[in-house]
Amino acid sequence: AQTVTQSQPEMSVQEAETVTLSCTYDTSESDYYLFWYKQPPSRQMILVIRQEAYKQQNATENRFSVNFQKAAKSFSLKISDSQLGDAAMYFCAYRPLLKLTFGTGTRLTIIP
Amino acid sequence: NAGVTQTPKFQVLKTGQSMTLQCAQDMNHEYMSWYRQDPGMGLRLIHYSVGAGITDQGEVPNGYNVSRSTTEDFPLRLLSAAPSQTSVYFCASSNLAGGPAGELFFGEGSRLTVL
């Protein structure tokens, strides 16, 4: 069974600083997608960024970027220039075909 | 656009009661799924469907039933509620044409409490 591990239950960062959230996963598949979802206090799930395993180039979306290490099965999220609106739960997720498997989440606090 | 709509948003049940969580999407998505979210456990897949008449189990299917009679609707049924089913439930859908890259669109969640 595939598993997704987020080893940091909570993280905090000063506003305008950079923070990295960690994620590792276990799979025997060769092609799959990885995602980071954000869940603010409103409870809405919002897609932040996605990465295909076959693409070596790390995905970037504005202030959000990933460090994808396929051999190490690691998929970390870097948030640059942190803003108050970034405060949320962040979930790493893995999807080989249909089923999307989530990690347990990291709660990110932004310190003004 | 409505996107994915879940009802009700809040529900309190007594042990043994039955209820149905409704989920509807207006994006013509083939893939629909139900997750439950519990503190410290992330979101876990309950059931999913790839089209009308086709459903399959996820990671935690026990105690839940689903059916898919139309593309738009994917209700989740609790036949005999138990306190262990107290959770927040999310319905999500995606376009299968995008394959595993397809973004999952989520409803706003339904908070269920079983006493």
Explained architecture:
The complex is a heterodimer of chains A (112) and B (115). Chain A is mainly beta and 112 residues long. Chain A is 0% helix and 52% strand. Chain A has strands spanning 3-5, 10-14, 19-21, 24-26, 33-39, 46-52, 60-61, 64-69, 74-79, 88-95, 101-102, 106-111. In chain A, strands 2, 5, 6, 10, 11 and 12 form a 6-stranded mixed sheet that branches. Chain A is globular. Chain B is mainly beta and 115 residues long. Chain B contains no helices and 11 strands. Chain B has strands spanning 4-7, 10-13, 19-25, 31-38, 42-51, 54-57, 64-66, 76-78, 87-94, 105-106, 110-114. In chain B, strands 2, 4, 5, 6, 9, 10 and 11 form a 7-stranded mixed sheet that branches. In chain B, strand 5 (42-51) and strand 6 form a beta hairpin. The radius of gyration of chain B is 13 Å and the shape is globular. In chain B, 37% of the residues are buried. The chains are: A mainly beta (112), B mainly beta (115). The A-B interface holds A 4, 6, 9, 32-33, 42-45, 47, 50, 52, 91, 95-105 and B 31, 33, 35, 40-45, 48, 50, 58-59, 88, 90, 92, 99-101, 103-104, 106, 108-109.
